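Hi support team,

I've been running sequence recovery on a batch of backbones for a student project. Most finish fine, but this one hangs at about 90% for roughly twenty minutes before it completes. I'm not sure whether the input is malformed or the queue is just slow. I've pasted the C-alpha cells below so you can try to reproduce it. Let me know if you need the job ID as well.

Thanks,
M.K.
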C-alpha cells in the first residue's frame, strides 16, 4: 500500500507539534513540513524577548481558558486533552528543563529560546520529518481526495494537509478558498499611545498593580488589573496588554481612540485614600510635599502629579489645601487619559481573528468544510493574553491535529509514546 503523506504548511510552533505528534502516532506516515523562511520557528526564537515564554503554570483548565479573549469556551476541551501540563511534560521528557516565574510564566531554565527551537528541530530530525525551508507555498488546491500543494519548483501531493501558517494573510486566503469563514484579522496585545502631561518624562516607571478601565465611546467598559509601565509614547506592561487584548475589536473599530481610566490605589476606596493622605499630611506637615509622598507611588510620579495639580513640590504639606488634596485623590483613583493610537513596540504581538472555530472540529482540528484539511495555531480565531498562552494554543491545537492525523492515516503501525 502507498504510504500516506502529510504536508504541513508553516514551520512554527503549531506546525512542528502537529508534525511530531502525527509521526509519533503513525511512524509510517510520510511527513513533509514546508517553511517559507530560511529557518523554521522564527517566532518561537524571538518569543519572550529571546527567552521564550513557552507556556503558563495555569494548569487548571477553567482558570486557563479565562486568559483567552477569543476562543475561551471552545478551547476548554482542547486544553482538557493537551494543556500546559502536557506541554511541560513534552519538553521535560526530551531533556528541556523548564522553570515557572512567580507570575506563572514558564521559561526554559536556560532563559534562551534556542533551547526550545533546538529540541523541536532535533525531534523532527530524529523522527525523519522532511523539514524543507526557503520553500514558500504558493497555492493549495483540492483534487478529489488529495491536496496539491504548489511551491516554486514542486507540487506536493498530500493525503492530509495541516495549515499552520500563523498570522500570514495567504494562509487565511487559502482557508477562505477552501470554504472557510475568516474572522477579519486585527492586532491584539499592543501598547497605548497616550500624550498626557502626567506621563511626560516618566518613561520606565512602573506600578505593581493598577486597575484600568477602557471606555470606548458607546460600548461597555472593559476592566482589568495588573502591573503598568510608562513608556516614551504612553503606556505598556501587562495591564495595558490585557486591556488591548480584551478590547482588541472595540479599539480597532474606534480607530484606537478611547478613554482609559486608571485607579492607582485599587485596594482602597476614595475615602480611605483621602484619610491616608490626611494622615500623611499630619505626620509630615513640615516636610516638603515632593519628598514625602505615599510610599506606594514612585517618587517621580508623585512629583509630576503635584506639578500637574499646580502644587509646588517644595511646599510643605501644611500648606496643601483640602481642595488640592481632594483633586490629588480624584486623579489617583480616577485618572482619565486619552488613548490616541496603538503603540508599535512589539513585546508580544498576536493576531486576533482567523478561521472561524465553528467550522473546525475541535476534537481533531479538522476542517468541517474541507475533509483532510487540518488547522492549528494562530491561523484559527483563538488568541490569548501575554504570559505563554499563545504558544500554548499553538502547542495544543498542533498536537491535537497531529494526533488525529496520525490515527486517521494509520494502517498497521504501532502506537508510540506521546
Ligand atoms: C515578538 C513576539 C514575541 C512573542 N512572545 C511570545 C511568548 O513569549 N509566549 C507566547 O505564548 N507567545 C508569544 N508570541 C506569540 C506566539 O509566538 C505565536 O502565537 C505563535 O508563534 C503562533 O504559532 P504558529 O505556529 O501558529 O505560527 P507561527 O509561529 O507564525 O508559524 C507560522 C509559520 O508559517 C510560515 N509560513 C507562513 N506562510 C507560509 C507559506 N506560504 N509557505 C510556507 N510557510 C509559510 C511562517 O514563516 C512561520 O514560520 C510572541 C509573538 C511575537 C511576534
Amino acid at each position: 500500500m502507498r504510504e500516506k503523506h502529510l504536508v504541513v504548511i508553516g514551520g512554527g510552533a503549531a506546525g512542528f507539534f502537529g508534525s511530531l505528534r502525527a509521526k509519533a502516532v503513525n511512524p509510517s506516515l510520510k511527513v513533509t513540513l514546508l517553511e517559507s523562511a530560511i529557518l523554521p520557528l522564527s517566532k518561537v526564537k524571538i518569543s519572550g524577548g529571546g527567552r521564550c515564554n513557552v507556556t503558563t503554570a495555569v494548569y487548571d483548565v477553567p482558570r486557563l481558558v479565562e486568559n483567552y479573549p477569543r476562543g475561551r469556551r471552545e478551547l476548554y476541551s482542547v486544553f482538557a486533552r493537551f494543556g500546559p501540563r502536557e506541554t511541560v511534560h513534552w519538553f521535560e521528557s526530551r531533556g528541556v528543563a523548564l522553570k515557572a516565574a512567580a507570575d506563572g510564566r514558564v521559561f526554559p531554565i536556560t532563559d534562551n529560546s534556542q533551547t526550545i527551537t533546538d529540541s523541536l528541530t532535533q525531534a523532527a530530525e530524529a523522527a525523519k520529518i522532511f523539514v524543507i525551508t526557503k520553500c514558500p507555498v504558493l497555492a493549495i488546491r483540492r483534487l478529489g481526495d488529495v491536496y496539491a500543494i504548489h511551491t516554486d519548483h514542486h507540487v506536493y501531493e498530500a493525503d492530509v494537509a495541516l495549515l499552520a501558517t500563523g498570522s500570514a494573510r495567504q494562509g487565511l486566503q487559502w482557508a477562505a478558498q477552501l470554504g472557510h469563514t475568516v474572522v477579519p484579522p486585527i492586532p491584539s496585545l499592543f501598547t497605548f499611545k497616550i500624550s498626557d502631561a502626567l506621563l511626560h518624562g516618566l518613561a520606565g516607571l512602573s506600578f505593581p498593580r493598577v486597575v484600568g478601565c477602557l471606555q470606548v465611546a458607546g460600548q461597555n467598559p472593559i476592566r482589568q488589573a495588573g502591573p503598568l509601565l510608562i513608556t516614551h509614547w504612553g503606556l505598556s506592561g501587562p495591564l495595558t496588554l490585557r486591556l488591548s487584548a480584551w478590547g482588541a475589536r472595540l479599539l480597532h473599530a474606534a480607530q484606537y481612540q478611547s478613554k482609559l481610566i486608571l485607579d492607582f490605589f485599587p485596594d482602597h476606596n476614595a475615602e480611605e485614600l483621602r484619610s491616608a493622605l490626611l494622615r500623611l499630611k499630619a505626620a509630615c506637615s513640615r516636610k516638603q510635599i515632593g519628598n514625602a509622598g505615599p510610599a506606594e507611588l514612585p517618587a517621580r510620579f508623585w512629583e509630576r502629579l503635584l506639578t500637574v495639580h499646580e502644587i509646588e513640590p517644595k511646599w510643605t504639606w501644611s500648606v496643601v489645601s483640602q481642595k488640592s488634596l481632594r483633586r490629588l485623590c480624584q486623579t489617583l483613583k480616577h485618572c482619565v487619559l486619552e488613548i490616541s493610537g496603538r503603540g508599535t513596540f512589539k513585546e508580544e504581538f498576536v493576531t486576533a481573528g482567523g478561521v472561524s472555530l465553528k467550522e473546525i472540529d475541535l476534537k481533531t482540528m479538522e476542517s468541517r468544510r474541507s475533509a483532510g484539511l487540518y488547522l492549528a495555531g494562530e491561523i484559527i480565531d483563538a488568541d490569548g493574553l501575554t504570559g505563554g498562552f499563545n504558544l500554548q494554543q499553538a502547542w495544543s491545537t498542533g498536537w491535537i491535529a497531529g494526533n488525529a492525523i496520525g490515527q486517521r492515516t494509520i494502517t498497521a503501525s504501532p502506537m508510540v509514546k506521546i
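--
Follow-up from support: It reproduced on our side and the slowdown came from queue contention, not your input. Residues 9-15, 34-37, 42-44, 46-48, 52-53, 136-137, 164-166, 168, 170-171, 346, 348-350, 377-378, 388-391, 394 surround flavin-adenine dinucleotide (CB under 6 Å). No action needed from you.
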